[in-house]
Write a structure and sequence with these properties.
Blueprint: H1 10-35, E1 63-68, E2 71-79, E3 84-86, E4 89-92, E5 97-104, E6 109-113, E7 119-122, E8 128-133, E9 138-143, E10 156-161
Parallel strand pairs: 2-5, 4-10
Antiparallel strand pairs: 1-2, 2-3, 5-8, 6-7, 6-9, 9-10
The chain binds dinuclear copper ion (CUA).
Length: about 160
Amino acid sequence: MSNEKMHIDPYEKKFMIIGIAVLVIFAISITIAGFMLGIQVPSPGQLIDPNTVASEGPYSDPGLKELSPGNYELYIRAEASPWRFYPDEVTVPVGSRVTIHVTSADVQHGFKIQDTNVNFMVLPGQESTLTYTFKEVGEYPYICTEYCGVGHQNMYGVITVE
Ligand code: CUA
């Protein structure tokens, strides 16, 4: 007859409960972030040749393009040496729905628009895309968030919503 219970040290038991609770909290957080806050993961499906990105295609003439009233596409090219975004000044009417496309012509950069959920890595050979609706008038600065060389701190711009 063996009705011995498995012995678990009380501290170990507490540790296991905390570990499982943390996993449950993370799973709930990811679900809320993905389905309720609209957090999206950049798709690696959008590939582009970094060698020709500055000379042909939409990034050779970057900026805002109107698709229909209130509906825009914004192409931004990130470059090092000189370190800057092309363009670094954008103006959109309030309420505009803007699909933002960013790519790099050289090294890894980042792209974050302050006070929005637009925040992604910018890799040579890939397009990072996210759609955002600018509902409030104001200035929305954007910066490079990945260290990309000695001029990294010079990579910024601003979207003016009016
Ligand atoms: Cu580009 Cu840091």
